[in-house]
Structures are given as structure tokens and as C-alpha cells.
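step=encode ok
step=design start
structure_in=
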């Protein structure tokens, strides 16, 4: 080991003067070799300090890198899906609907018919003393069934079933309207039976014949059915593909919104993962560079001592008349491998990223990937 004076320029001067009395060595001198061994010990100690610190830093670095890579993969997939959804949305633009009545006007009209049928039916059945169950069954049948039948009747009539018989719509129209008429006749018959009881007629102050009263209500329901059918007729496009086009447009719009939301979430996750990864990577890089700087400073210091030693050695060889070496051998100090280049390799990271990306795709698709 060096004496403490050997760590000073005085020690370099003293050893240079002393070694000048001896023939020049074939390689590095004893003093230079001592410095090289001492430097190697210092470098190994600095390398061990770095390795101990990196045992904590690298797992965090690799974890953050894996999260960042997964977030990058998710973001790229979300961008691709969003582009596809945007392309699909551009293809299925909302079609122009050729109608005489706006769809919202039609819906409000049907809603008004449905609401109007409820009291019209429930009051009569309650006066007749029927149970609440039968009352609401009959009310539901009329307030939902009648407008619904009118809705499909208007759509079928829009396709001109009796003119375009090749499509076979005329059979549906006949069956549907026959069924509605028979249902209204049946309900009218039930109402007639209720009002054949004189007490019921007197209780509500109606002096009409039961048959006439049933016919009036049946005509009212038929009028509602006809109005609703005409409303459905004038609010739907004659082209049967229009409804399908509207459905495809709405589906594409919904998918685009979902993909845009997924993309925004993926971008936010990617940003957070990138910030965390950059923070840990910068911290690790900074610590590594500090250790490299310690070695470079120490190496520069050693080079200064050896250069001073050689300068003094050469001067006194000339003074003592001793042989002078034609050239000094370059001294080399091996830097530990751990401090030559920062190890950024995370074993198994690529496989983990691939598996994580595949799992994310499977979750997104509802686990239906084969």
C-alpha cells in the first residue's frame, strides 16, 4: 500500500528522483504499477457502490419500462381502432330521409295516443267493477298494442304492398289490419256487455244503448289507429334500406365515440407511464453518470501524478547521466464493466409486453378472441 506521502506531488517527485538512479524499466515502473493497482481498487469500489444502488434502481426501471411499453402498445392499438371507427363512420354517414313528417313529431304523436288511451280504457273498466289486473291488461293492450300495430301498418303501406306484390307485403297488411279490427270488435263486445247493466249506465249518466256506446268507443279507437298509421306512413322513407342505413350510422357513431373514449384513456395512461418511466430512467442515468464522473476525475488525478513522476524521473536521469528511455509505456487502467455502459436491458420485457398486449386485446374484445 502507498504511504500517505505517495498520494501527493511530493511523493511523485520523490519516487521520480529515486527511480532515476536505476536503469529504465521495460514496462511501467514500480511507482506507476502501484498507482495502477491502487486505481483499480478504487474503481472496483466505485463499481460495487453503483451495483448496490442499481439493485434497487433497476427493478423499478424495468417495471416502469414494462408499463410504458404496454401503455405504448395500448395507445397504438387504440389509435388504430379509432382510425378504423372513424373510417367506418365516414362510410355510414346519416342518409337523407325522404319523409313528410319529422321523426320526432311522429314519436310525440304516438306518445300522445298511448297516454290518451290509458285513462280512456281504465276509467270504463273501473266503473264496470273489474279488477285492477284486467283493467291494466286491457289498457296495456290498447295503449301499446294499437300504436305499435299502426307503426308497422304505416311502414308496410309505405312500400306499396298492393302495387309491388312481388315482395309479399300485401299478406302482412291484410293479416295485421284484420287482427286489429277483430281485436277492437272483441273489446267493443266486452264493453257492450258491461253497459247492459242499467246500474252502470245510470251511475255515469249515459242514456245510450250499450251497442251504440260500444260502437262509439270502437270508432274512436279505429280513428286513433288510422291517424297513427298515416303518421307512420308519412314519417318513414319509402326506401327499405333507409332504416338499415340509419341503424348502421348510429352503430358506427356509437363505436366511434367508444373508440375515442378508449383512445383518450389510453393516451392518459401512456402519458402517466411515460412520465414515471422518464423520471426513474433519468434518476438512474444521473447516478450512473455521477459514478462515471468519479472514475474520470480519479483517472485524471492519477494521470497528473504519473506525468509529474515521469517529468521528474527524466530530469534526474539526465542530471545523473543515466540511460533515458526512448518512450514511456502508456499506462492503462481497466474500468469495471458495470461502469462502461449503462445496462438498459430488462430480460423478458419483450415477452411480457407481448403477453400484456394480447391480454388487453382479449379483455377489450370481451374474451372472444380465438
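sequence_out=
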Amino acid at each position: 500500500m502507498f504511504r500517505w506521502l505517495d498520494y501527493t506531488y511530493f511523493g511523485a517527485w520523490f519516487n521520480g528522483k529515486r527511480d532515476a538512479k536505476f536503469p529504465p524499466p521495460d514496462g511501467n515502473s514500480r511507482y506507476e504499477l502501484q498507482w495502477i493497482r491502487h486505481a483499480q481498487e478504487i474503481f472496483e469500489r466505485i463499481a460495487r457502490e453503483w451495483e448496490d444502488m442499481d439493485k434497487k434502481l433497476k427493478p423499478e426501471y424495468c417495471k416502469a419500462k414494462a408499463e410504458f411499453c404496454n401503455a405504448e402498445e395500448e395507445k397504438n392499438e387504440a389509435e388504430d381502432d379509432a382510425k378504423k371507427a372513424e373510417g367506418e363512420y365516414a362510410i355510414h354517414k346519416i342518409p337523407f330521409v325522404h319523409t313528410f313528417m319529422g321523426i320526432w313529431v311522429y314519436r310525440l304523436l304516438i306518445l300522445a295516443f298511448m297516454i290518451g288511451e290509458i285513462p280512456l280504457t281504465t276509467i270504463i273498466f273501473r266503473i264496470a267493477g273489474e279488477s285492477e289486473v284486467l283493467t291494466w291488461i286491457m289498457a296495456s293492450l290498447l295503449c301499446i298494442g294499437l300504436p305499435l300495430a299502426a307503426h308497422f301498418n304505416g311502414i308496410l303501406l309505405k312500400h306499396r304492398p298492393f302495387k309491388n306484390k312481388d315482395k309479399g307485403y300485401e299478406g302482412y297488411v291484410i293479416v295485421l289490419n284484420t287482427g286489429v279490427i277483430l281485436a277492437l270488435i272483441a273489446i267493443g263486445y266486452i264493453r257492450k256487455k258491461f253497459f247492459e247493466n242499467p246500474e252502470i249506465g245510470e251511475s255515469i249518466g249515459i242514456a245510450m244503448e250499450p251497442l251504440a256506446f260500444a260502437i262509439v268507443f270502437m270508432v274512436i279507437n279505429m280513428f286513433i289507429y288510422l291517424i297513427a298509421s298515416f303518421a307512420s306512413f308519412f314519417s318513414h322513407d319509402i326506401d327499405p334500406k333507409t332504416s338499415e342505413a340509419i341503424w348502421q350510422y348510429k352503430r358506427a357513431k356509437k363505436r366511434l365515440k367508444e373508440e375515442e373514449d378508449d383512445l383518450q384513456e389510453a393516451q392518459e395512461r401512456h402519458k402517466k407511464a411515460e412520465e414515471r418511466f422518464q423520471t426513474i430512467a433519468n434518476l438512474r442515468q444521473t447516478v450512473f453518470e455521477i459514478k462515471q464522473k468519479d472514475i474520470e476525475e480519479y483517472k485524471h488525478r492519477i494521470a497528473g501524478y504519473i506525468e509529474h513522476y515521469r517529468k521528474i524521473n527524466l530530469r534526474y536521469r539526465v542530471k545523473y547521466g543515466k540511460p533515458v528511455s526512448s518512450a514511456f509505456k502508456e499506462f492503462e487502467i481497466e474500468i469495471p464493466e458495470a461502469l462502461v455502459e449503462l445496462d438498459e436491458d430488462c430480460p423478458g420485457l419483450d415477452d411480457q409486453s407481448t403477453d400484456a398486449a394480447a391480454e388487453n386485446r382479449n379483455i377489450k374484445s370481451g374474451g372472444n378472441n380465438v
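step=design ok
step=annotate ok -> DSSP finds nine helices and no strands in the chain.
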